[in-house]
Design a protein that fits this description.
The structure is a single chain. The N terminus is likely disordered. By secondary structure, the chain is of the alpha/beta class. It folds into three domains: 727 residues, ABC transporter type 1, transmembrane domain (ABC transporter transmembrane region fold), CATH 1.20.1560; 185 residues, P-loop containing nucleotide triphosphate hydrolases (Rossmann fold), CATH 3.40.50.300; 80 residues, no CATH class. InterPro entries: AAA+_ATPase, ABC1_TM_dom, ABC1_TM_sf, ABC_transporter-like_ATP-bd, ABC_transporter-like_CS, ABC_transporter_C-like, ABCC_6TM_D1, ABCC_6TM_D2. Its main location: membrane. It comes from Aphanomyces astaci. GO terms for molecular function: ABC-type transporter activity; ATP binding; ATP hydrolysis activity.
Amino acid sequence: MGTTKDVTSAASGSTFQALASPALNELPTQWSQRPHPIVNANWFSRALLLWFDPLVLKGAKDPLTEDDVWHLAPPDTAAVLQARFQGAWTTAKQTTSSPSFFRALLRTFRRDIGVVLALYTASSVLILLQPVVIKSLLQFLTTESATAVTDLGISNGYILAALLTLLSFGSVTIMDLGMVFAGRLGCNAKAIVMDLVFLHSLSGHQSCTSSGDLVTLASVDSTRLFMCGLWFMWTFLSPVMVLAIFVMIGFDLGAWPAIAGAAVMVALMAFGVLEGRAVGAIQKDILVVQGERVKFTNELLQGVRAVKIYGWEAPLQAHVEAMRGQELSLLKVYHYRRQVSSIALLVAPVLSLALCLVVYVAQGSRLTPPLAFITLAYVNAARTPCSSFSFSIMNLFDALHSSHRIDAFLASSSTTTISTDTPPSSAPTPCPAPNNISSKPPSTPPLIHMQSASFQWKKPSTEAVDNPPEHALKHINIVVDSTPSLTIVVGYVGSGKSSLLSAMLGDLHLASGGCHVTVRSVGYCSQDPWLQNATIRDNIVFTDQVDNTPRYNRVMSACHLEADLASLAGGDSTEIGARGVTLSGGQKARVGLARAAYKDADLYLLDDPLSALDAAVATTVFHECIRNLLSRTRPVVLVVNSHYHLLPFADRVLVMDNGAIVGDGPLESLASTAFLHLFSSPLSSAAQSSTSLVVAEERKVGHVTSQTYLTYFQASGWNGLGVAMSVLGVFVLAQACLVLMDWFVGFWASSSPFLSTVPYNNNATYAGIYVALSVLALGLVLGRSLYVLHFILLCSKHLHAAILHNVLHAPVPSFFDVTPVGRILNRFSADLSTVDNMVPMLGLHILGLVFQIVASLVVCAATSPYILLLYVPLGYVFSKLRFIYSLTSTQLKRLDATSRSPVLNLLTETSGNGGGTTIRAFHAEDAFQSKARAAIDCNQRFDLTHFISTKWFQMRLDWVSVGVVGGVAFLAVATKHSMGGVTAAGLALTYAIQLTIVLSRTTMEYTYMENVMTSAERLDHYNDLEKEGTITQSLPTSTIQPCPGHETALADWPSRGAVTFANYSMRYRAGLELSLKHVSLSVRAGEKVGICGRTGGGKSSLLAALFRMVEAASGRI
């Protein structure tokens, strides 16, 4: 097995980096220029997945990069899929008042579902025919005559062996092809959900949905729909297959044995359905708790500077871990009940077989080897539909609960939106004139006209009629026409100033009154500037595709940004990081204002853009930008929380109080009122500037090593190797009991005298022994599952606690400033959810399948030593295939995981901190939706390609297992009189057929498990993060001296608040220039010190040093 090493993702430097950077002018195009090879593939190549060979061979030679993977076929792109879904969704809304997302999804993919169902049905028919051929082959082996005719009318054993081999080959190939279509369907459903989340969040439909819920919808709920698409068909196919199996058993054993076995099977399947429904309800609760945890984690990461300044890491970590504890409690119940349901369906064939045989011999019938082994073959054929039924039911209920969440998300009402249509020819009825404003209607329709309008932040639900939400704004009367003017809005904190602008933008729900907004375009600046992880220029130009250099230069000058750009090495091409972390507060405010000013808009809404500027800079920017550049040509509505010395320059002043307009008119008309107390001294704020580039996301190459698994088990708090060995031990015991049961069936049928303690031909005794073995097997299988689950849940608990601690104690400059929040949140949402849900499910299932394979190979080899010769070439082919494939698959999964971060990062960036409002104000929804679709398509092409790679490998592994079936069948015929008897031959054939189902599925699921472990690998990466200096320092006990009034005190504990900088220098990260250079100063106790300087002069860096946000480069404090 190859080694694993850390590398910087090649993809991160191109497509992923471009997707992470919302420079919409430069969307990635290189990956979309490679045509999908399936477009030109013939039907033979499509059926056998030969068109996929070149990519697998390329991945085996060199680590795959994004450029090696072709783009999505057009029908699989997010835009095309969304168009298909919207057609079904529109139909659903027209036919019912409560449209269902899940039913609309079924309508969207009804043709795809039909294709998958047809392929699965064809494969199932071929599977059910195999026991019939086995029966005829055993009949041939039990007769001495070379011309004896079997039930199929074929007397040639080699023809029967060839027929069995062909049926096996056809069944597995068709089934694998059906899985390709099912996986594609699941990936498409996942893409639709992610696109819907972006579509509605950008259009303002998510006003009641938190960012944590949005992330959960886009990552967790979409994945559950993918799993449902993969397993959905078994929900209907499994009962049909089981019914057909027992009908065929009835033809051989009679009606009553078949009815008895079917009754047990149906009862246990019904139990599985009921448990699946209960498990789905628990999953719904888990998603609620998980959404709250992700939401709080997102807020914690967004405000990490405040957390560190106040020293809140420990209590907030404890709060997150308490939420995680609730989630783990639900996960424990979820997994335990899920395993009980799975085990019930796993042992259903065993118990059904026991009852069939007991009833059969109780009727006085004689059990012969052909009858025993064909019954065993039929029941083994029922294992796949039973286990698949368990998976399908649970995934179906999970998907239904996720769909209900999506229904609630889609049903959330849109808010009032700004009209982009041509203004109507007739204006609405004029509002009553505000104080001192003429009621004479303007010559053209007003841009904004509110008449006794009251607004709420949330639309009241039907359940909240008796307790409606409070009004954010009350009885607003205002008219803003297209005449160039400057309106300044003032008022107390929380009086409704920002809410007034939000109402004008359409982000509030109109509760009563009238509101008419007709604006073609708006230049908007939020109170807390929303900046993207892009360059300064890209943030200012935003989505404007027209190069307007003269206006750009005027805006930069008017906003006083030229001097700042001159101090930056990259000028306006400097990347400012997530949320503009490399800019000072004043610089961020002016970049936000510059973006609004650069927009050639009909109306400018500016929400306190001057609060972060000192009085001198604020005055200059106000006059040069707001007055001279904007209000001379367009109406401007400006909110002011400070700098009241600018009010005399306003054409109109609005005074807000408690959500209502209490003063409206020129300043002179308000000067003699009580509003004079609002005037106050200017405030100032600034911060240090630095330049920084967001680092590429880490990605590993090569296999997931055994060390990854041991590290995961080590997270349980126990010895990792010891846990692994104990798990293997309990599985060995359980599997040995299951093999003993199958051997005993042949022993019973042959009426062997070797069991001397049991009376010969005593069917009642044999039946009792078989039932006892069945009960023992059930107990062992249940015990092994609960044992493994205990350790897996411990691993999940400790792994989350460790990475949360490490993230919270990572340095701000070298980690948070260069790592987008979406990338970190990806670990705490999608990756953690994968480890929580997929590792327990897949781990238990894979271990069971691995021991089935070992048992099958041992039993087949025990029947004849010649079969060992067959294992040599087949084993070589298997190992070669696995080596070639695993390299490709693991790299594709890592590309998938890495490409998922830009999707979540873009979602958190656009949905939080006023991002959606800014995007809608600039009418940039389409541009950002295109950006989102580019990110989704980039992720989906790796996700879908990875899934197809698993089916490519599974199909070829199935062919290897078909080789085992053919080898056993032909050897049984060739060594008819020397193979060890019909019992050995029957057992070998039964296990060989079982191998065709189990081998490929095990390898596929193991590879999927290896890919799932890349999530554990990505989580474990955060265990190696750079850590801050120690928060506390222990002093020798000799320094502790008694102090009057206290038991103990540190001798050098400061008794006065004096601070001394001694030749202190600081840089934010290695490789950057010093932000503070050789600072030496002393502040005596009781002194009040003011720090002044131009924007970017180092004031905030001084504070960062005092709070020890950055370690010293030299000197000390």
